[in-house]
Amino acid sequence: MDVTFFYGALLLYVVGTVAYLLLLWFQGGPLARLATAATVGGSVLHTLALLTRFYAAGRLPPGNTYEAISFFAWVTVLVYLGLEVRFRRHVMGAFVLPIVLLTALAAATVPKSPGGLSPALDNTWVWLHVTFVLSGSAALALTCGVGLMYLLQERQLKSKSLGAMYYRLPSLDFLDGLGHRALLVGFPLLTAGLITGAFQAQAAWGRVLTWDPTQLLSLVTWVIYGGLLQARLTAGWRGRKAALLSVLGFGAVLVTVLGVSVLVGRPHVFN
Amino acid sequence: MVILTVGLNHTTAPVEIRERLHLPEAALPAFFERLGQEAGVLERLILSTCNRVEVYAVTDDPEQAQVAIPHILAEGTRTPLALFEQKLYRHQQEAAVRHAFRVAASLDSLVLGESQILHQVKAAYEVARAQAATGPILNTLMGRALGVAKKVRTETGIGEAAVSIPSAAIGLAKTIFGELADRTVLIVGAGEMAEVAVRHLKGEGVHTVLVAHRHFDHAVELAAQIGGRAVRFDQIRHELLEADIVLSSTAAPHYILHRADVEELIRLRWNRPLFLIDIAVPRDIDPAVNEIDNVYLYDIDDLEGVVAAHREARERESAQAELLIEREVATFFRWLKSLEVVPTLVTLRRHLEEIQEVELVKALSRLPELTPAQQDVVRSLAHGIVSKILHHPTTELKRQSVNRDGLLYVSALRRLFGLRD
Question: How much is the pLDDT for A271?
């Protein structure tokens, strides 16, 4: 049942993503309404998918790779919809919804059975760890989308050739500010996630470093974002370089969250 | 019932003619009166702006009206008809409605997508309506035209891109800084374009305007004029730490701002973005400055390129607007068609006859003992009632249809009986 809801959500995300991308070139009230409606519909089905999974499994998701990736996509889409309501701009959807769709597709390719968590991992620390890391990653997904928009808009202003997209994209000031704020939310969450993860590793295996690929990659990610935040706060970094680094950082997030467990097939310890 | 427009605009007639055809508001009652009396026009409206003079009319005799309207306009404005007759365009029905929609949506404007025309159309309509010159058709037409124009503005980007150099510069500033309210502008040198741009920027609520000039007196004078603060020319580097937007238009024969200066400046500014507008010829700022991160340098050619790009963008959007307008024209004519008298009467008669048939079948099936002669009496009773009911509305509607409020009867009738096509 929950998987059916999930596939319904996935389908609506495809519609939403295509509509948001088309909006970059074609302005249109009906198209914009379609994009929003599909995304809202998708997020409702997605919420139902997570809720029914919660009842079926008798524990809070995320409890395996599928649930983790799905949860990440869910938080990202909710954050995006919040921003759309707040700023009344559809253009961000063209840069955030593809991330939602990509991760939801990745979730679709991994085994979905609820599978019991090993007792050692069925505790609040693990749940906090996973929730922090994934919510932080969703905020960082936003910095990536906003960073891409910044790079495109900056390119047009510098080269002085204004394409159709110039008229749709927001101001550099807005994008830089939003990227910064998302980083201020995302980085502490990521940090909290890594700390709770370390506690858990200490409790379960008696050591903090387990040489698990996901663990190592998330350290790399943390260093990139930490460096970015440091440069922003103390060296006055902003604009293009900051945007480039947030895109790069999110590349590391994707490799960490998706690459290892989905492509390489070595899921981060769940049991 | 025909919708008609007769007029001329900036593409067909020069300003010397357009200005002569302008009717003062005080002359309008007499003008509308004559249109009604002499041109056989039921509803009318005049749109008179600096770029166009157009009469919209509803008439039963379009041939007569098309000839009479220019005559009355000529006499009303004391302009010889021969002077402008060749410049007139005349549209009927779909073409006239499409024209009205395109004008309101600014697709027929000198500057595509400008917003002034919407207010002018609205004002022209209100004036005519206040003098009871319009009726149900023009009221609906103008209401739709205003609605279409708003839809075009919100659903296409036709009015977004600025098409003059100062407003294009402000558009760029907004793309860089978002709101301009708490920004500081520094003007270096003087010049007409700089002054126009500053007035625009003030309109956007910029926080501070600083004025520098090689002659401090000039700076003081200009600052007083535009409500800014004069600063010393040799202090420019210092002021550049504060300024967000710089407008440079000095008469200097060489660059006054070099790449190395700006590189140092941007470091001291903690990478806060800087928008440099160089409208001087020869240029004041080394073009290589544009390569520095967070610095955006536009010279006069760049700005002209932006204006050209904006024009193209408006034209791309106008294709979408035309599609939208075609749909609205079709919708309008569906409405108009529903107001025709004869088809409405036919529909009404058919509607009542259907009721008559259904009720007859019901009644006769409950009375199997009736002889054929008795059945005929029942049939003619039903038929007689329907005919009697129809008689008065039919003659009255035909009588009313020749004056313009007849349409209200048609639309009321359709609504009361729930008639569809």
Answer: 41
Q: How far apart are CA B408 and CA B414, in angstroms?
A: 10
Is residue A160 helix, strand or coil? coil
Q: Which residues of B touch A171 (CB under 8 A)?
A: 174-178
Same domain, A205 and A132: yes
Question: How much is the pLDDT for B421?
Answer: 58
User: Which residues of B are known catalytic residues?
Assistant: 50
Measuring CA to CA, how many Å separate B132 from each of B32, B123, B193?
A: 9, 14, 46
- B155–A27 C-beta distance less than 8 A: yes
First to last CA, chain B: 19
- B271 Cβ partners below 8 Å, 6+ apart? A236, A237, A238, A239, B293, B294
ipTM (interface pTM): 0.87
Q: Which domains does chain B have, with CATH numbers?
A: 2-155 (3.30.460.30), 165-306 (3.40.50.720), 341-417 (no CATH)
Instruction: Test B313 with A157 for CB contact under 8 angstroms.
Output: no
Domain match, A79 and A173 both:
no
Is B294 in contact with A238 (Cβ distance < 8 A)? Answer: yes
**Chain A CB within 8 Å of residue B270 CB:** yes
Output the CA angle A147-A151-A155, nearest 5 degrees.
170
Whether B177 has its CB under 8 Å from any CB of chain A: the answer is: yes
pTM for this prediction: 0.76
Query: Mean pLDDT in chain B?
Result: 89
